[in-house]
Amino acid sequence: MKRYQSDLERPRRPVGWTDFPEKHWHLWQRLPKLRKKMDIHLIAAIGTGGIIGHKGGIPWKAPKDMERFRYLTTGNAVIMGRKTWESIPEDFRPLPDRQNIVLSRDTEFWRRATGAQTAKTLPEALGLVEEGCVPFVIGGQSVYQEALDKGLVTRMYITHVNIDGLPGDTFFPEYREDEWEELDTLYESFETLRFVTLQRITPQSNP
User: Which candidate, 2, 6, 1, places its Cα nearest to that of 117?
Assistant: First the structure.
């Protein structure tokens, strides 16, 4: 993935749906010949009862899941909310060898997000994704919710963590299972982890 010293060096992207402000989506939908589809992936680890986090962190340790996350996202773009960014230990952010994009409307936060690009909206974040990179939505709850509710995600990589009694205060959103096809399932760590890959079988929506 090519690195740029400043945003001035970054090539301008061609005109596409991502150049339109969010309030003008209805106009963009009238221009089907100019719209561009892009694969948008989602990756998440989900505990019993849909738990994805607790008190700003992950309530389990699963090295195999972290290996899978690193393998899939390296060389691509990761899109996350501010809380997810802040939950990453400072020594490990930005996530290395990945384009880090953080969603936040807080302009004060923008100055603190060293090493990451910032965007106010999910469509704006998708517009920042560098050519050749696959965007991965990596959390948190509200970002997952928006990406799924708007029908943007084309593939999901889900790790089911089968450990009872874990605390949790953030949860993976519900989604329509009939819109997805299971491509493969793999068990790890004495069936404590179940890696599932899901592919959308209904048409992808336009951002």
Answer: 6
